[in-house]
Design goal:
The protein is mainly beta. Helix content is 0%, strand content 51%. It is built from no helices and 11 strands. Strands 2, 4, 5, 6, 9, 10 and 11 form a 7-stranded mixed β-sheet that branches. Strands 1-3-8-7 form a 4-stranded antiparallel β-sheet, with no helix packed on it. A hairpin with a 5-residue loop joins strand 5 and strand 6.
Length: 119
C-alpha cells in the first residue's frame, strides 16, 4: 500500500486548503484503516507532527494547528484528509502523510504536497 499526498497550493493568509492522502493498493475488503498521520517540513528544519487519526477514529493535533486544522478519513475511499483553515505564513511547508505505529511514522516518505501561505 502506497500513500500519495495531494491538494497543496498557494493561498493567502487566513485562507483554507484541504489536503488528501490516498492509499493506493488497498481494497474495501481490507481490514479497517490503520492509524495515519500528517507531518510537515520546511528547509533546514526537522519534520513536524501536524495531526493524526487513529484506527478507531481518535484525532490528535499538534499545538500549532489545534483549533485550525481538522483531520478526517473516508475508509470507503481509503483516503485521509486535512482541512486547514485560518492559514498562517508559518504553515508554509511540504506536507506528508504516513502510517503510524503509536506515535511514530513507519512507512517510507512520499513526495509530499507543497503548501505556501502568503502574507
Amino acid at each position: 500500500v502506497q500513500l500519495v499526498e495531494s491538494g497543496g497550493g498557494l493561498v493567502q493568509a487566513g485562507g483554507s486548503l484541504r489536503l488528501s492522502c490516498g492509499a493506493s493498493g488497498r481494497t474495501s475488503a481490507d481490514s479497517a484503516m490503520p492509524s495515519l498521520g500528517w507531518f510537515r517540513q520546511t528547509p533546514g528544519k526537522e519534520r513536524e507532527f501536524v495531526a493524526a487519526i487513529t484506527w478507531n477514529g481518535r484525532t490528535i493535533y499538534g499545538d500549532s494547528v489545534q483549533g485550525r486544522f481538522t483531520v478526517s478519513r473516508d475508509s470507503a475511499k481509503s483516503t485521509m484528509y486535512l482541512e486547514m483553515n485560518s492559514l498562517k505564513p508559518e504553515d508554509t511547508a511540504v506536507y506528508y502523510c504516513n502510517f503510524l505505529l503509536g506515535d511514530s511514522p513507519i512507512g517510507p516518505w512520499g513526495q509530499g504536497t507543497q503548501v505556501t501561505v502568503s502574507s
